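Sat 14:20. Reprocessing the chain from the morning session after the first attempt stalled halfway. Input below, unchanged.
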Amino acid sequence: MATINVRRVYDDPDPDDGTRVLVDRLWPRGVSRERAAVDAWLKDVAPSGELRGWYHHDRSRYQEFDARYRGELEDGPAAKALAQLRELVRGGPVTLVTSVKSVEDSHVPTLVDVLEKSAPPPAGR
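Finished this time. Tokens:
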């Protein structure tokens, strides 16, 4: 399986990042496209504005947020964006780039889990 890294958009890019994909619905405030150094912006893979507003990083709601977000990823534009992201992951290392302050409390851990569970098994198994 290809490597999936996570990095905040405010951190400097790393030579080992591979394909850098912004996975936020909104462009990060105060960050130029050059500074972000992203290869793709898959905003539809991020939670809907409605879900994001409901959750508002309230850790007590995380379990329900996780379930709702997984549901969003199964249909419509989110599913299409997830398919594009899966293709990028199959092609080599990918770094999911986000502007959230607390990555652990965001949609990113769920997205990484979905990507890792849907990855094809390594060759020869």
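The radius of gyration is 14 Å.
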